[in-house]
């Protein structure tokens, strides 16, 4: 399976047309068709459903599309790393970060590093800890900012002093908005939007204790932005970290912390025994020196 053919495949998948794909790739239509048929023969599956006006991906084609995008991203990243000059720190650092107020710490480190190495660029990916770990393991992300609980035995890491505070996002005119904090029994029979990560769900369930069975989880989320919109539209209460949603006079939202208090730590991780680019290596050194001092 050649990189060139994977690029052909992704172009046709995106355009849903061999004719348009051939035009973009500047090759003839018969040549492109032959390459795709050879790819299907090599894999032993049909990748396309060929219709009169367009072609669509089969289930196998959808799987190959995801894998091909990951492969080409990794090839592009590798080429950039080898293209860096020995006497000048350049290139890109790939960073994944969960939704956490600790991003301010990482952002300040990037700002300081940028002053030292202005040629370095940063590629940021947002996701939950499970998403980021998967991309680190595949080599698509160099450094991750993760919220606990999280299994980090495969990674080197620095733990941040910051603690995230759990609580409930709600409308300002909701019955619970008058309270200073939220106790487990306050959410009994209430519609709740909970985090999607299983390990975090366990933490939340332990905090609720026997009251957990009495709440009505109507939805889960991996990033809080859309969940906050659901809260604003009156669909329920979202369990989340403090300070992640902009709360001001223009919004109808407020945040109330849990009581007893529930806190979560944050870590910056990178894969053990990994050979990084010069830029990423320098940045990891800066993280260690700044946070372990």
Fold and architecture overview:
With 293 residues, the protein is of the alpha/beta class. It has 3 domains: 3-82, Orthogonal Bundle (Arc Repressor Mutant, subunit A), CATH 1.10.10; 91-161 and 265-291, D-Maltodextrin-Binding Protein, domain 2 (3-Layer(aba) Sandwich), CATH 3.40.190.10; 164-262, Periplasmic binding protein-like II (D-Maltodextrin-Binding Protein, domain 2, 3-Layer(aba) Sandwich), CATH 3.40.190. Helices cover 40% and strands 25% of the residues. The protein is built from 9 helices and 11 strands. The protein has helices spanning 3-15, 18-25, 29-43, 59-82, 103-116, 129-137, 198-208, 224-232, 278-291, and strands at residues 48-50, 55-57, 91-97, 120-126, 143-147, 155-171, 191-195, 216-221, 237-241, 253-257, 263-271. Strands 3, 4, 5, 6, 7, 8, 9, 10 and 11 form a 9-stranded mixed sheet that branches. Strand 7, helix 7 and strand 8 (216-221) form a beta-alpha-beta unit. The longest helix has 24 residues, at 59-82.
